[in-house]
Amino acid sequence: xxxxxxxFNETQTQERWSLQNKQMLRVTLEGQDDILARKGTMVAYQGxxxxxxxxxxxxxxxxxxxxxxxxxxxxxxxxxxxxxxxxAQYVHIMDVEQDGLTVDSSHVLAMDxxxxxEAVAVDSMYGVSGSGKYQxxxxxxxxxALMTSGAPLLIQVTPDKYVNCDADAIVAWxxxxxxxxxxxxxxxxxxxxxxxxGEGWELSxxxxxxxxxxxxxxxxxxxxxxxxxxxxxxxxxxxxxRGQNQGNVWG
Length: 251
Known about the structure:
The chain is mainly beta. It has two helices and 17 strands. The protein has a single domain, classed as Double-stranded beta-helix. The chain has helices at 58-67, 230-233; strands spanning 17-21, 24-30, 35-38, 42-53, 73-84, 90-96, 101-103, 108-112, 116-121, 134-139, 142-148, 153-157, 163-166, 170-174, 178-182, 202-206, 209-213.
């Protein structure tokens, strides 16, 4: 049998975390090194691997109900190789060190089970779409796989060079950074896009660290019900941000 498809064979590597390609994560498990992955993102696996829903404590459930920020995770454990992907988004592997990582939960694909995550408040007196008042802090030592819509930009923040990012385009940033949410608008209503430019809320980062931005202010529809009309396929209507699908910003 011959086909150009054979150019897409499995990636051979000794790394535990690696990319099969730009849109697919490959993780090797050896029995004692569980990972937590977003529910429903397994596309293939080899070996003896089991998938269990990750328990959510009462405190975590209450926090998620109040903030709208949280993760639906499954625990992947056993021996073998698991492949993870979500809506053909670009996948990026990051090492979480002592400083920690703050991220919008919608961009998290998987993480080491040794990492700890909790919802934190972002300085703002208003709730906005995209990156709102609450984000996830991921701390500890381990690796996390993030997803972006397209190839992202990693911007370094220094004490003499602060960075502003669109609140709908920011993916993650170093937890050590000082963050303030603002809307530089001259109109009487803060909800109006600034001066007719189409720009609205932004996050201002100060200190020392990094900010990760994706080349899109929209996410693909999450959990849209296919077969329920054009609106559902594009995450609108009852599948939009104001309907049943609260994690979708295509409203």
